[in-house]
From TrEMBL:
<dbReference type="Pfam" id="PF00856">
    <property type="entry name" value="SET"/>
</dbReference>
<dbReference type="Pfam" id="PF01753">
    <property type="entry name" value="zf-MYND"/>
</dbReference>
<dbReference type="InterPro" id="IPR050869">
    <property type="entry name" value="H3K4_H4K5_MeTrfase"/>
</dbReference>
<dbReference type="InterPro" id="IPR002893">
    <property type="entry name" value="Znf_MYND"/>
</dbReference>
<feature type="domain" description="SET">
    <location>
        <begin position="7"/>
        <end position="268"/>
    </location>
</feature>
<dbReference type="GO" id="GO:0005634">
    <property type="term" value="C:nucleus"/>
</dbReference>
<feature type="domain" description="MYND-type">
    <location>
        <begin position="58"/>
        <end position="113"/>
    </location>
</feature>
<dbReference type="GO" id="GO:0008270">
    <property type="term" value="F:zinc ion binding"/>
</dbReference>
<protein>
    <recommendedName>
        <fullName>MYND-type zinc finger protein samB</fullName>
    </recommendedName>
</protein>
<keyword id="KW-0863">Zinc-finger</keyword>
<dbReference type="InterPro" id="IPR001214">
    <property type="entry name" value="SET_dom"/>
</dbReference>
<feature type="region of interest" description="Disordered">
    <location>
        <begin position="1"/>
        <end position="23"/>
    </location>
</feature>
<keyword id="KW-0479">Metal-binding</keyword>
<keyword id="KW-0862">Zinc</keyword>
<dbReference type="InterPro" id="IPR046341">
    <property type="entry name" value="SET_dom_sf"/>
</dbReference>
Amino acid sequence: MPPHLPPGIRINHDHHPTHPGKRRSLVATQSFSPGSQIATFSNPLIALPDGASMRTTCNYCLRVGSQDTDSPNGGGGQQQQQQLRACTACKAAVYCNATCQRAHWRAVHKLECKMFTRVRENVGKDWLPTPVRAVAQVLILLKGGDAAVKEAFEAEDGLEANVEGFKAYEEVWKDFELQATAAVVYAGLLEGEEMLAKAREVLCKIQTNAFNRLDADTGMTGIFLDAGLAMVNHSCVPNAFVGFDKRTAVLRAERPIQEGEEITISYIDNMLPTSARHEALKLYHFQCDCPRCWDDLDVYEVCQTSPHIHLNSFSLQPDLSKLQDPPIDRSKVTRAEIEIIYKKWQALTPPQGDDEEELLEFARKRWELCRPLVEARMWAVEPVPTTINQLANRWQTSYKMFVYALPLLCFLSTECDPFKLVAPFKPWRIKGIVAIIKLLALTGEFTASGALATRCTHEGLVGTLATASQVSMCEALLRLAVHHGSIGAAEDWDVLKQAKSMLEDLESLEGREHESNLLRAWAKDPEDPEGAAFFENQVLRPINTLASFAPEILEEMLSRRSPVKQKQK
Ligand SMILES: C[S@@+](CC[C@H](N)C(=O)[O-])C[C@H]1O[C@@H](n2cnc3c(N)ncnc32)[C@H](O)[C@@H]1O
């Protein structure tokens, strides 16, 4: 029996003449506009936090919290987070409340609880590596006769396993053998070779069909497997994407989808150069022949053909002609050189600790590799954006450097993200905007007290912030975040909730009704003459000026020349 699917989608079982290995696919039974919700999946077969965070994440709803203070490792320092209480029997699985604990007990924990007692007695640990726990859960649910798990893992038309494909990679297969054996032993099911073979097959099915559930807010990962969602095939130019909200996966349209069209998502980071994408897809055992792979398109070329460039008229890159005809110089770097740059960049080993000098030296080496792309002004081509992003992330929380993170974040939101992620409602684009808002609020305090110049030697940066209306900038950015967040994210996405409440606070500030009215008019109609002029002059211009400092700041910090020079713009 095929998995139960929500309305709006169906499974296509037709043979793909050009791709016999593709087997089934998910097809839209109605049209979907960009950003709209195609389907939600809230009853997964497997939903696990990753091994290391199973003591700090509710094992049922996957909400991140802090550990019970009675537990051996304590839970201090995270007051705002939900306090989690451990199962009194195994003391390994933790929950945010009794409802979650009961639901997890019914779903699987009554069967796996003893396993954790066994783990503690045998190896003294109170957690298991994620794949081992996932396989063990499936095995004990199969043993317990769970119908949905049997259907997915034992029926002939169940989940794709690709066992022979995995066997071809010796190292991967050795790893699978170890993990499958551990799962069988810990589950208390070591009954012979047949059970071990079953465990290996289960692991192959999990590897092929489960999502790495990355929580965009906390960075926590885990495994999420739903038999219906697992029917979506891959494309490097997908028309849909999956977001996670605790125990629910939401499938959303990224591009317009017509009735009868196949729905595709990207299994990997589809912004990487072609050979890196193919390397990442190796474990799915198929040759991707999407337009990006077929014509070896870079991010700018994919952006140029995107059907939703126009959505950026309400964004930080409203100059649509730039998205249609990007100001880059392809003669400075070939595709083959980009592939080599990426491989060398990836091969550099990051320093182990937090030593500032070592981290800066590492960033310098990475930046040096990016130089041909920088000269071509191909800022949106990896590894340039990730190199800048990593530096911005570090500087944001650095007492000495946080002011310098602001131009970097403005640069990412204007020169990188819109080309990489053309749809402005993609959560990563919204997060980029929210990061700018937070830094504007922080630097605003220093501007008001006149202390900014003591923190930052870049006169252009200090001058721009001194003359800009940071409150209006924040309000405009919040309106962008709330508008696009309401299209492409769950209503109770923390980032969206936070943006909404910050916007309410700003709107209620006395004495700036005029500015607020203009921005409200612009948000209602980005072509409203007065509102648009206000946004252009008071928001976009300072954001672009701040962004324009990023290349020189990066150059001077990372090119082994002098420190940031004092410059008046
Ligand atoms: C998560 S499953 C997707 C559902 C799968 N088609 C099925 O019938 O079970 C992933 C597997 O589907 C196949 N697949 C996914 N995308 C594909 C594509 N673009 N071309 C060919 N095969 C693909 C590969 O075998 C891959 O390992």
